[in-house]
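Input record, target 12 of the design panel.
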């Protein structure tokens, strides 16, 4: 059996078109244009690509995007002052500080400084707590995108065993919370997990968010399982640069029921969800309920 391909690029294009449609109505009916501020400290080339993509796609979806590029030697106090200014700016509804930050800046302090209502990454402890309590909140973009792909691929998530490989605050942990809310049975695995391959063999849904090229092999996969590859790894093979996931795609595609490619899987959904979160935050700032008012 060959797995069906989950086309993240196409799903993301639909989601962006929906954001654009709703942003147009917001502007017409309420005179409100959602604004996203993206802060990049330093000049990591990969971050540079993401930030450029985010700014372009925000503009295409009818959002105002404001880019703040700061030099690597920016002090923590300077960054916190910028966040304070953005928190108080009524034209800014979403703030994203690109991670990782340079080593001399305390990431946790920065995340705490962002107003929870503008935290479109969903990383602030208030939003993390709300997500874990099953309350409505701004959901981290990558797990949000993965959830939308799963809902589109599987008839129901209820009662399925989801194994997540990776327990980071930005992907693995919030993914576990979201899937619990969907009534999956969730196993969160990490670098100390014993017999990882055996744990993954029990999964109806596998989510790989590790940062290790092709860690998840074909013989780890239950036939017919749904495999979501979050990993983005830059490798050079035969002298050529490639983007590969955390899943050995060529092996797993023969066993799984459905699989996301890299590139063109989760990545484009992450950006589309960031735009959607900005729209949600803008509506929230005026007490407009997205589903009711639009
Ligand atoms: N497509 C997208 O939109 C996005 C993609 N990414 C990509 O997803 C991947 C993961 O990112 P992120 O969550 O930030 O990564 P982190 O480095 O923060 O976390 C990696 C996790 O993987 C675990 N891990 C490491 N090695 C192994 C192993 N051999 N077996 C099992 N678990 C292991 C770690 O375990 P431990 O906790 O024990 O150290 C940790 O929990 C990266 O490739 C990143 O580029 C990230 C964000 C968005
Ligand atoms: N505050 C913060 N929020 C983030 O959400 C965040 C972050 N920091 N730091 C880095 C990670 C990584 N991330 C990606 C987003 C899009 C693609 C993406 O669009 N990928 C394309 C390929 C892009 C390419 O060719 O490089 C794809 O998979 O098709 C990838 C990775 C968001 N992150």
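The sequence produced for target 12 reads:
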């Amino acid at each position: 059996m060959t797995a069906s391909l989950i086309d993240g690029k196409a799903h993301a294009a639909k989601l962006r078109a929906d954001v654009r449609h709703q942003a147009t109505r917001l502007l017409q009916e309420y005179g409100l244009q959602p604004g996203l501020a993206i802060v990049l400290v330093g000049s990591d080339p990969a971050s540079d690509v993401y930030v450029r993509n985010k700014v372009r796609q925000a503009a295409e979806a009818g959002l105002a995007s404001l880019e703040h590029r700061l030099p690597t030697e920016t002090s923590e106090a300077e960054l916190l002052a910028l966040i304070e200014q953005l928190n108080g700016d009524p034209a800014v509804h979403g703030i994203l500080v690109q991670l990782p930050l340079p080593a001399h800046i305390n990431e946790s302090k920065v995340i705490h400084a962002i107003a929870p209502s503008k935290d479109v990454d969903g990383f602030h402890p208030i939003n993390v707590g709300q997500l874990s309590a099953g309350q409505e909140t701004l959901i981290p973009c990558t797990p949000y995108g993965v959830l939308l792909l799963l809902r589109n691929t599987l008839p129901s998530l209820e009662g399925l065993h989801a194994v997540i490989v990776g327990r980071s605050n930005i992907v693995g942990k919030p993914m576990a919370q979201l899937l619990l809310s969907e009534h999956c049975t969730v196993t969160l695995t990490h670098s100390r997990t014993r017999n990882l391959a055996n744990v993954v063999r029990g999964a109806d849904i596998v989510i790989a968010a590790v940062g290790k090229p092709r860690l998840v092999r074909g013989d780890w996969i239950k036939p017919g399982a749904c495999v979501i590859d979050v990993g983005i790894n830059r490798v050079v093979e035969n002298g050529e640069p490639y983007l590969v996931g955390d899943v050995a795609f060529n092996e797993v595609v023969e066993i799984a029921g459905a699989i996301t490619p890299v590139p063109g899987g989760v990545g484009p959904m992450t950006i589309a969800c960031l735009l959607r979160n900005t729209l949600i935050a803008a509506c929230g700032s005026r007490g407009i309920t997205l589903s009711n008012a639009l």
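The longest helix spans residues 8-30.
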